[in-house]
């Protein structure tokens, strides 16, 4: 059906090595270099932006019971590593306050 010769395998191996070398240098692109590892260049996912959007959504849902400013500051401080989920009490517990 398909015949694979040594030159095809060698070409594919070189291509994989070159792609892995050039795709790991995110710092060379000034527009996304400041995000570091919290921006996935292959899929375009910006974890910090997702975190900030979730903080805004939780603030809309919970109102004064949710500390949106503190949530947003933690997104920036931790670079979106802990994304809050408004339906998961464990992920938003640090940002909830009880009003009396």
UniProtKB/TrEMBL annotation:
Q: Which Pfam families match?
A: Eclosion
Q: Which InterPro entries match?
A: Eclosion
- Which residues are the signal sequence here? 1-28
Q: Which GO terms describe its biological process?
A: ecdysis, chitin-based cuticle; neuropeptide signaling pathway
**Is the Disulfide bond keyword given for this protein?**
yes
Tell me the compartments it is located in: Secreted
Domain of life assignment: Eukaryota
| GO MF terms held by the record | ecdysis-triggering hormone activity
Where in the chain are disulfide-linked cysteines found?
51-75, 55-71, 58-86
**Which residue ranges does UniProt annotate as crossing the membrane?**
none
**Keywords, comma-separated and alphabetical:** Disulfide bond, Hormone, Neuropeptide, Secreted, Signal
Q: Name one GO cellular component term.
A: extracellular region
The Swiss-Prot or TrEMBL record describes its family as follows: Belongs to the insect eclosion hormone family.
Function summary:
Neuropeptide that triggers the performance of ecdysis behaviors at the end of a molt. It triggers adult behavior patterns: larval, pupal and adult ecdysis, and plasticization during the molt.
Q: Identify this protein by name.
A: Eclosion hormone
């Amino acid at each position: 059906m398909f015949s694979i010769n040594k030159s095809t395998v060698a070409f594919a191996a070189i291509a994989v090595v070159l792609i892995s070398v050039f795709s790991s240098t995110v710092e060379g692109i000034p527009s996304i270099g400041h995000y570091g590892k919290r921006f996935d260049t292959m899929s375009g996912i910006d974890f910090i932006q997702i975190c900030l959007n979730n903080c805004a959504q939780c603030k809309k849902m919970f109102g004064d019971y949710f500390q949106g400013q503190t949530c947003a500051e933690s997104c920036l401080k931790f670079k979106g590593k802990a994304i809050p989920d408004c339906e998961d009490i464990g992920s938003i517990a640090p940002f909830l306050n009880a009003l009396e």
